[in-house]
Design a protein that fits this description.
Chains A, B: This is Orotidine-5'-phosphate decarboxylase. Chains A, B: It comes from Sporanaerobium hydrogeniformans. 2 copies of one chain form a homodimer. The first copy, chain A, has one domain: Alpha-Beta Barrel (TIM Barrel). Chain A is 43% helix and 17% strand. Chain A is built from 13 helices and 12 strands. Chain A has an 8-stranded parallel β-barrel, surrounded by 6 helices. Chain A has a two-stranded antiparallel ribbon with strand order 4-5. In chain A, a hairpin with a 2-residue loop joins β8 and β9. In chain A, α3 packs parallel to α5. Chains A and B meet through α3, α4, α5, α6 and α9 of A and α3, α4, α5, α6 and α9 of B.
Chain lengths: 304, 304
């Protein structure tokens, strides 16, 4: 995953990952009406709304970005139909050459983690291997320690897939646990050290590990300190745009080659049409493309 | 959830929750053969195996236990078909009067947490409310702090549902983060304090909150200390049996009325037939019932 991601960032000159996190409120009226008419007030209708919405955006932006990150919760709330839309979105994005990061934030003990690792490793039934989820990488939660991560590392090495483990999240309450001081340093530094250590077990060929870290854009000083602390760990950076993070804040999240991070924006891109006075609702994907280009230019200004 | 759970524990005189965590290796050969013949080497075949297996066990033990806890990872690895089996297992268990704890360990920031809260709150589509997952309670991960928990608390109050938040897990690596010292106390104590505080926002009527804690059976001293630290927090206790926890260790996890915890066993019950020389493979559910009765007697010995 990580080599492919770095190469795609270089090719597009754009470290943007588009968060495919649709909500019902975000769906343009003409799509809503069509699906409600066809499928009624059902989870299937919403699933089809999300799919049509995502596909139109992917069609418009796929050659401008390296990666998309669907947030599984948005789909999971609509049950099996919602999750079908999640899987079909992944398949569609992969067919367009995008690196797909499944934002699943799973985390459990050894035997259970081995089952969750099916997200990136697939599953075997009587000797037949099948890749039912197809993510290139997934996000994970570190609270349960190494035995909850280990089965995923095997999958990284066996299938060239990747992980992004929560270290310092972008939300306001993240600090309640993550910023507690342990031996004079915040807990997220301890998490960072574990993630770095685990990362050595699955190095890519371009200086970064298959095991990355989630480091929010909204805590600039901490992010810069973590960049120094974890030189071989690629960062997935949420919190840009709608949550308040700015490109200027991210200048020192990049390494000296302008590499090392991928920056997520969700609402700011996929719902851009709701704030863009130059487009009609039917042009929602065009608005997303404009937002991607603006974000690319914004980030290029600080990539050095 | 919590009042219903306490009443069911009193009625059955049994604080056992059966972990419905089937694995392929656990399925009796006669079920495997039937499903492979009918559905081929497909996720649907495995889903049907899990369903038949779970239903037979539920039929046999439902009047002896208060609750079951399906681990979603075991189903999720088999994709949408697997998750269908998860949902149908929940529906079946609820129809038999059991309290269902979905072991999902989700955790994310505010807006995403609101989507995950659909597990216990259901979802609304154009004014039509539907409960697609149906869990009475779910497990959650606290790493992202309160804004990741808050949307679930609303669901607890609106729909009388519950949560069990990871505090001190039963696995060996849990200590890597959870036992780090913060102000001279382990991190899990800080988590415990947060969970207690959050718990006040959704109290049941019998002295315990809808917001419980996951506290492993495998760290006895810590569990006993946490019992004192969190007097109004119900404990979901994993780690009994296969992971090494014993009833004797749990004596002081109970409150003075012999209440306050529910103890999980998964493999030790549902795969009991593989170690029970008195039963045939076809009697796997009978073996599960025997294991439930043995566990009940074991726990009653320390419930004071």
């Amino acid at each position: 995953m990580i080599d492919q991601l770095i190469n795609k960032i270089k090719a597009t000159q754009n470290p943007t990952v588009v968060g495919l996190d649709p909500t019902y409120a975000m769906i343009p009226t003409f799509i809503k009406e069509e699906m409600l008419e066809t499928y009624g007030k059902t989870p299937k209708a919403v699933a089809e709304m999300f799919l049509q919405f995502n596909k139109a955006i992917i069609d418009e932006v796929h050659d401008l970005i390296p990666s998309v990150k669907p947030q599984i919760a948005m789909y999971e709330q609509y049950g099996l139909e919602g999750l079908r839309a999640y899987i079909e979105t992944i398949a569609y994005a992969k067919a367009k050459g995008l690196v797909v990061i499944g934002d699943v934030k799973r985390g459990d003990i050894a035997s259970t983690a081995a089952a969750y690792a099916g997200h990136i490793a697939g599953v075997e039934i009587e000797g037949v291997h099948m890749d039912l989820w197809q993510e290139d990488a997934v996000t994970l939660n570190p609270y349960m320690g190494f035995d909850g991560i280990e089965p995923f590392i095997k999958a990284c090495n066996d299938y060239h897939r990747g992980l992004f483990i929560l270290v310092k999240t972008s939300n306001p309450s993240g600090k309640e646990l993550q910023d507690l001081l342990v031996d004079g340093v915040p807990l997220y530094d301890k998490t960072a050290d574990l993630v770095s250590e685990w990362g050595e077990l699955a190095m890519g060929t371009m200086g970064y590990s298959e095991i990355g870290a989630v480091v929010g854009a909204t805590y600039k000083e901490q992010g810069i300190e973590l960049r120094k602390r974890m030189p071989h760990t690629f960062f997935l950076v949420p919190g840009y745009g709608a949550q308040g993070g700015k490109a200027e804040d991210l200048k020192d999240y990049f390494d000296k080659d302008g590499n090392g991070i991928i920056v997520n924006s969700s609402r700011g891109i996929i719902a851009a049409y709701q704030k863009d006075k130059e487009v009609t609702e039917k042009e929602f994907a065009i608005a997303a493309k404009k937002a991607v280009l603006a974000m690319r230019d914004d980030l290029q200004g600080v990539m050095r």
